[in-house]
Amino acid sequence: MPNPPVVLVTYPDKFTKEEAKSLVGSADRSIRRVFTQKYLNRSQYGMGAGKAEEIKKFVAESKIDEVIVDEHLTSRQIFNLEKIVGVKVIDRERLILDIFYSRATTTEAKLQIELAEIKYEMSRVRETAKITSGGERAGKGGMGEYVVDVKFRDLKRRMSFIKEKLDEASRKRELYHHQRLKTGMSLVSLVGYTSSGKTTLFNLLTGENKQTSSSLFTTLSTTTRVSKIDENNEVLLTDTVGFISRLPTYMIDAFKSTLEESLIADVILLLIDSSEEVQDIRIKYNSCRQVLRELGADESKIIVVFTKHDKLVLSEAVTQLSEDMGIQEPVSISSTNMYGINKLKIRIRQRLAANESLSPPPVI
Length: 364
What we know:
Elements: E1 5-10, H1 14-26, E2 30-36, H2 49-62, E3 66-69, H3 75-85, E4 88-91, H4 92-103, H5 107-122, H6 125-132, H7 147-183, E5 186-192, H8 198-206, E6 223-228, E7 234-239, H9 249-254, H10 256-263, E8 267-273, H11 278-295, E9 302-307, H12 315-324, E10 331-332, H13 341-353
Helix pairs in contact: 1-4, 4-5, 5-7, 7-10
């Protein structure tokens, strides 16, 4: 079955446009045309009325299934825009949730996505009720309560249930953490922007064969395996969900129980794709550091790893960028040709040796 044809409305700058196109592709939609708008937070449609009319004309001529707007929209804005263009409208957050749903494989990942979905709906339930009731409060339901209040309470009840399940998963992870401490094995966590090469490096260092893809959010759940750092030392290596720019706080919160694995790690490897343009690297690096700060990660544990060195065009530009952003001793690697892998292992051992968790590395 062919991917549904859609129109994408996004910001004009190159980075935002390319990321939005990647999101749409990861959601198995086919973009027929990209419209750009400097502002997507205007009150009535998100975009200007003229742009909405322009999209309406294209949709009518091209048999488009959906209009995707690369920004948070209120229920009122979606309602107004759908009246104009005549097809379904979804915003950036709904698109990301759709991708999450298509990628989730574990029970915990599915619960996390459902929690994010509920938070998405709760912020809109009252406004949606006003729209569907012509501006008045929704009609009464059982026991004299308003339908909107019943809906809101049901969402809160479901949220509490999911949080209990996620807390239970978190407690099991904490128990596992304590058991790990008894074994003396160190934990190394891979974090970074989605599609930065985390899973490829994970496979290389552990001998696993986890799915890799250029699509965003290929990994949504945590996977931990043993990795041999050298002949005498092993660590546990963890791969988890990738970050992305403008990811709403409630989505980060929903995945917090999974991301906790990164917080308790002895070393955090922050992976950045060095094959991209300098400005894109800067944006992605800053987005990752912001998420890690929101999660309360210990920044002293972080080693910045520039991946895809085999595709690098200007190594001098990455070196200068590292200096500009104050990145201390980054490591450049290629999981394809093994460039820098031994150096990365030594850096991991150096960081862990301070805790006496591994034998001290050789002097080189």
